[in-house]
Structure formats: structure tokens, C-alpha cells
Amino acid sequence: MSVLYWSHPSFRLHESAPDHPECGARLDAINDQLIAAGIEPWLMHRVAPAVTREQLERVHDVAYVDEIERVAGGCMTLQHLDRDTVIGPHSLEAARHAAGAVVAAVDAVMTSMPRRAFCAVRPPGHHATRNRAMGFCVYNNVAVGAAHALAVQGLERVAIVDFDVHHGNGTEDVFRHEPRVFMASAFEGSLWSTSDPQEPAPHNACWLDLPAGTRGRAYRARFAADLLPAIDAFAPQLLMISAGFDAHCADDISHLYLVEDDYAWITRELVALAERHCAGRLVSVLEGGYNLPALGRSVVAHLRALLE
Ligand SMILES: [Zn+2]
């Protein structure tokens, strides 16, 4: 099995503030580990196209898309979209191609082989709501891809599994009233900074709210007991992943203690789920992961499992 690998030069050029954890060096760390691990020959590299207005407006308010184009389009120096979301001169191009990568990956796995794709994108997307950039995210890349799968590929059930250590609040904001999308998010509850902790999960979402200090064994047990059966019951036709690697024990942005083997296990379980329900169709999209060596090794573990 080979895996489609979507990237674009602008992803590396998207600037954040000095010492910002969401930096271009993240992609260098991934590329270094792909080469060191010797899995490059099995990746089918594709250059991401730019997203269209029509594709963005399925997910984001017209006024928000206008505002991002106005602010980011004329951006000559670094600017803050919110407290921790920073853009520079290359950010609009990167954001357009990041969302476009996921749309192209959806079309590819729906219409041809191989049926598995990874989008190595920056900026990440799962915190971006319909009308707000936040948490390093500008456009909600995975949501744009899922909306495309519904509108153009005619799917009736798309599942989005989010294993980034932060709650995928933006994706839930986009799809909370869309019964054709099911969202499963595993996150560290104490990091809840972008959602109201009093608010219950939407009807079409399943939350795995993990306490600080959770290690791989407990994580896997809860993932298997709570998350996987919920996705099985939904029986998706396409499985999408918000793949953040910031629950790694070396990542000091969180207090979970996963290791590379845990990401391999999660990925194998999701591949098996895609084989059961989706004819193997799976699109994985990079979100967080800020300890550079751990990020590179974890992405390799994820891709190795996708290649099996
Ligand atoms: Zn995260």
C-alpha cells in the first residue's frame, strides 16, 4: 500500500512570531524523519492546489473569508488575528493551499487508488470556527474537505476523528447541526481554553475527555471502549483524521504521555475502521505537534501504519 502525501512550498514559508511553537521547522523535522526512516519511496507526493471561494464558503462565513483575504492579502509584516494566531506575507497562500490539499485528497481517495492520504499542511485548522481564527488556525482544513465530500462526492456519512491533544472546537462549530458528519475528539480536558467546559457535546460528536497524566495504556483503553464503537455505529463512508501529535510525552504544550507506538496503534485502529466501513478511504490532516523530534518520529509512526 502506498500513501498520497500532499504538501506545498508555502506551508514552510507561513511565518508565525519568533519562538512561536507552530513554526516552519515542524515540516523540516517531519521531512528529516521521513528520510531517516526510509519510507519516502512509498509516499506518492502531490502538490496541493489552492482552495476555491466556493469550497471555503461551505464552511466559513462570506464575511470571514473576505476579512481574511483583506487582512492577510495585504500583509507585509507579522500580524495577529487573535492572541496566538499570527500571519505573515506568505500566510494567505499557505492557508489557501492547506485547505485545498484536503479537498484534493478527498477527491483522490474517492476516485482512485491509493485510498489513503496524508496532508502535511500549515497552518493547522481544527480550532478555526465559521467566523473566527484561533489557536494558530485560519481556515478549518479538515472541515473544508469534509464539506466537499458531502457536496461534491455526494457522501451521506463522513466521520472526523481528532486525536490532537486540544479539543477540535472549530470543527464542531462548523458541523454541530450537520447530521451527515460525526466528530470524535480525544483531548486533554484541562487544556480546554477554546470551548465552554459547561457545554455538552453536540448530538453528532463523541468526546474523550482525558485527565492530565494519562499514559498510552489508559488512553488506548478509553479510545477502544468509547470512541471506536461510536464511530462504528455511525458507519462512515469516508474517515478523516485531525492528526495532531501534541499529546506526545515530550511535548510540553500538554500533560498527556503518548509515545510513537501509541500513534501507530491509534492509526492501525482507524485504518481497520476505514477498511470495515469506507472501502479503506482515509484522509489524515496534520494539526498540532510542537516538540520537533517527537513530531517527526510520531508522523513516521502514523505513516508507517497507513502504509501497512
Ligand atoms: Zn493541539
From TrEMBL:
Gene Ontology molecular function terms on file: histone deacetylase activity
Pfam families, per the entry: Hist_deacetyl (PF00850)
Annotated GO biological process: epigenetic regulation of gene expression
InterPro entries: HDACs, His_deacetylse_dom, His_deacetylse_dom_sf, Ureohydrolase_dom_sf
Record domain Histone deacetylase: where: 20-306
Superkingdom field: Bacteria
Family: Belongs to the histone deacetylase family.
Protein name: Deacetylase
Organism of provenance: Acidihalobacter ferrooxydans
